[in-house]
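2024-03-11 09:14:02 DEBUG pipeline.ingest accepted 1 chain
2024-03-11 09:14:02 DEBUG pipeline.ingest length=380
2024-03-11 09:14:03 DEBUG pipeline.predict start
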Amino acid sequence: MIYLDNAATSYPKPRGMLAAMEECILKYCGNPGRSGHSMSIRTGEEVYHARRKIARLFNIRRPERLIFTKNTTEALNLAIKGVLEAGDHVITTSMEHNSVLRPLKALEREGVTQSVIRADREGCVKASDIEKAIRPNTRLIAVTAASNVTGTKMPLAEIGEIAKKRGILFLVDGAQGAGAAEIDTEKMNINLLAFPGHKSLLGPQGTGALYTDINTKLKHLMEGGTGTESKSRVQPCEFPEGYEAGTINAPAIIGLGYSAEFVDKIGTDVIGKYEEGLIEWLDQRLDEMDFVVRYGPCAGRKTGISLFNIKGIPAEEVTEILSREFEIAVRGGFHCAGLAHKTIGTWDQGAVRVSVGPFNTKGDMEKITDAIYKIGCRQR
């Protein structure tokens, strides 16, 4: 199988990640922070090291402000529901994933209002349009680092500067940027950063995290055991334990720590440039096919995603044919981001998404190009 669905989850994973997880499970997998024996202490130490490795990728100066979650969705819910209250106003964009849009919709019942800034047909949003939407009660600006539909990168540094100047919290959904594009919490004035472990960080599924800066206080989404203040029935607010109630997925987090270090050694800029080159080559070939409609900006303004349709064939059918006949894995449909598809003009049919990772090759691009050409020619 030629795997080109990395925007959903990356594949393959570094072998060292598997070895790190296996070593934990076989040799020392105690419950971190819960006991004083050597296995528990070793597990806690390894989780601590993983937290530091991941924090370094995003220039997070206080690793303890990094809260582990099971995915980006949980991290975004913690950020959004943890800071917003009745009467608050939020600014977001039409290119957001449902992991942002649905929590915001749910909070409307509690008196939270929102302004959705419409992107252009390539999925691009202007920072100036966000600034124009600011109200006296604007509490939060929530923006994706890059669209999971078109790959379009957002002007995070510009938006972060506006948020800082106006005293507004800045939340970044890093699902499609973390590990393959620069995300610097200090330079970009990011107060809250949610990201997955299993996508461009090349870690295992079931991992994610939320970073919150020192000035941000969060309401808890969940209460329970933390290994601290056990005599109190009140949930502790200390970071990170107070927000990681229950037993954490230590083997997966330790594996993620290995993968984050792996990515850091290569460099997110190097990975991003490599993936850009693959997508640029593919986009150029798709643009030469008169039966293909491609969406989104040029390769230099997006992550490793190419979005297209073959005229006359539903997106899901193209996806199924690529899998069944050519053993190529992509994703067709609406990608959990219906509003983004409405923005770019694919509301009725969805689209086919090709998303590359650092282990893909030009040979993979040649094979999918040939497959798309063969499928399209059938319609003539």
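2024-03-11 09:14:41 DEBUG pipeline.report DSSP finds eleven helices and 13 strands in the chain.
2024-03-11 09:14:41 DEBUG pipeline.predict end
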